[in-house]
Design brief:
Largest interface: A-B, 19 and 22 residues
Oligomer: heterodimer
Number of strands of chain B: 11
Distance between the termini of chain B: 34 Å
Strand content of chain B: over 45%
Radius of gyration of chain B: 13 Å
Largest sheet of chain A: 6 strands, mixed
Order of helices and strands of chain A: EEEEEEEEEEEE
Distance between the termini of chain A: 41 Å
C-alpha cells in the first residue's frame, strides 16, 4: 500500500534560518503530493500541492518539488518566522482502485525561536 | 476558509457510553471524511462518505459507525467508548472530480477524552 515517511521532529530553528523537512513516499502509479500545516489548537490547512512529476508547489514562501526519481517531496523555506511554528504533514493521494484516499506522514513539529 | 464546523469541540465521557460527533459543512461538497489524530501516527482515516447514505470504511473503523442523512451533516458514533478512542477527531470535505477529491479541507477538530 501507499506510505509516507517524513523526518521526525521536533525541529527547532532560529528566526530567518533555512528550513527543510524531508518527505519520501511509496506509491503505485502517479500520486498527487501535499503539505498540510496545523497551527496549535487548529485543524489542518492545505499549504501546497503538486500533482505530477517535476511540479513545484509553493505558498507563503514555502516550496516543494515533486521528484519522482527519488520519490520525494521535501518542504523548504528560505527564511522562517516565529509564526511558522506548527506541525507539518506530508501526504499523498493515491491513484487507482482502493488507493483513492489521503495517506499522511506522522507530522513534524517545527518551533521557530525569535 | 471552508465552512466546516464540528461539535462538540471538547468532550469528556466514560468508558462504555455512546458518543456522537457531528460534522457540518456549508460547501455542499459530496465527499466527507472522519480522521483521528494521535501522537506518532499522524492522521488515520476512520470512515468516509461519497454521498448521502453512501459510506465506506477507512483503515481504523473498528468501534466506529457513521451516518449521513443530509449532504451537509456527517455523524461519527462511538457505540461504546473505550480509552483507546481518546483522540482528536477531524472532519474533512472535498469536492467531486478527479482533482477536487484529492484536496481536502479540514474542520477545527473535536478533542475526546474517554475515562
Amino acid at each position: 500500500g501507499n506510505s509516507v515517511t517524513q523526518m521526525e521532529g521536533p525541529v527547532t530553528l532560529s528566526e530567518e534560518a533555512f528550513l527543510t523537512i524531508n518527505c519520501t513516499y511509496t506509491a503505485t502509479g502517479y500520486p498527487s503530493l501535499f503539505w498540510y500545516v496545523q497551527y496549535p489548537g487548529e485543524g489542518l490547512q492545505l499549504l501546497l500541492k503538486a500533482t505530477k512529476a517535476d511540479d513545484k508547489g509553493s505558498n507563503k514562501g514555502f516550496e516543494a518539488t515533486y521528484r519522482k526519481e527519488t520519490t520525494s517531496f521535501h518542504l523548504e523555506k528560505g527564511s522562517v518566522q516565529v509564526s511558522d511554528s506548527a506541525v507539518y504533514f506530508c501526504a499523498l493521494w493515491g491513484s487507482g482502485g482502493s488507493n483513492y484516499k489521503l495517506t499522511f506522514g506522522k507530522g513534524t513539529l517545527l518551533t521557530v525561536n525569535p | 476558509d471552508a465552512g466546516i464546523t464540528q461539535s462538540p469541540r471538547h468532550k469528556v465521557t466514560e468508558t462504555g457510553t455512546p458518543v456522537t460527533l457531528r460534522c457540518h459543512q456549508t460547501e455542499n461538497h459530496r465527499y466527507m471524511y472522519w480522521y483521528r489524530q494521535d501522537p506518532g501516527h499522524g492522521l488515520r482515516l476512520i470512515h468516509y462518505s461519497y454521498g448521502v447514505k453512501d459510506t465506506d470504511k477507512g483503515e481504523v473503523s473498528d468501534g466506529y459507525s457513521v451516518s449521513r442523512s443530509k449532504t451537509e451533516d456527517f455523524l461519527l458514533t462511538l457505540e461504546s467508548a473505550t480509552s483507546s478512542q481518546t483522540s482528536v477527531y477531524f472532519c474533512a470535505i472535498s469536492a467531486p472530480g478527479a482533482s477536487g477529491r484529492e484536496t481536502q479541507y479540514f474542520g477545527p477538530g473535536t478533542r475526546l477524552l474517554v475515562l
